[in-house]
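#help-structures
NK: newbie question, is this the right format to request a structure? protein is Delta-aminolevulinic acid dehydratase
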Amino acid sequence: MSFPNHRPRRLRTTPAMRRLTAENRLAPADLILPAFIREGLTEPSPISSMPGVVQHTTDSLKRAAAEAVELGVGGIMLFGVPAVRDAQGTASLDPDGVLNKAIRDVRAEVGDDLVIMGDVCLDEFTDHGHCGVLDADGYVDNDATLEIYGRMAVAQAEAGAHVLGPSGMMDGQIAVIRQALEESGHKNTAVLAYAAKYASAFYGPFREAVDSQLKGDRRTYQMDAANRREAILEVELDLEEGADMVMVKPAMSYLDILADVAAMSPVPVSAYQISGEYAMIEAAAANGWIDRRGAITESVLGIKRAGADTVLTYWASELAGWLKES
Ligand code: PBG
């Protein structure tokens, strides 16, 4: 009787055997929770396209941060939704503006027990919804925007952010932010560069989350989904400019990019499982079409397996809770 020479199934026979031989593992410390705070709210406000995610009040944000610490989550990435917007995104620079105040409040709540990150980008603060300021032709003005990013970075560092996350895809943004931080005495504030960030249809629900005013798209600054090699160029530039960590975004439709970046990056690599990825799984699960917990766990594990050291995911705290119990 003939028999297979190799039986890979031997290592799959029991849960204990599978656990022992797993090549990758998820840990709460790898997870970063993106969170929204909206100015002037008295109650947390649900985001309809992201069931389970809310726009926070100061109090509910502090509670979410404290819970993340409890669960062993690695970090929190803060996004602010201001009450008033203008063409220059002025509210981003106000030390008492919604995002800077949230950074200060969360830092006061959790201290150094959670890595506090701030979104350095203008899209939540501008009345046209673009990630930078516009020139006379309505084109996003790269260098005028850089000047504002530098000041925004200093304001967030002063508020107590441990890490800054520039997400606007302006050329030279990491260098300008690094220089502004050094000159203002914030030499230990780290930069997580959104290095390879693609123009994506999957950002849809985020635009609701931040009440985005955007008409049109971001294709003149975010990357084209067709491009793979270009991601390496973007990462190399950000490393040259002083990035401490680099990110690929979105995650699930860009796992090839993530694997490429993980293979060449000498610094930790993040991936952002974005709002549309969250919404798809929640919607399918709500219809009973997929197993919610299984799909969430598998999706984040897939991102880890492709090469991410850390994963930004709206499920960070819930997933950390599951990991703790198992
Ligand atoms: C821009 C920004 C976006 C996201 C994070 N930062 C939106 C965009 O580029 O249009 C999207 C995150 C998500 O979809 O979950 N500041």
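mod (FA): yep, format's fine, and the tokens are attached above. Residues 119, 121, 123, 131, 167, 203, 206, 218, 274-275 surround PBG (CB under 6 Å).
NK: thank you!
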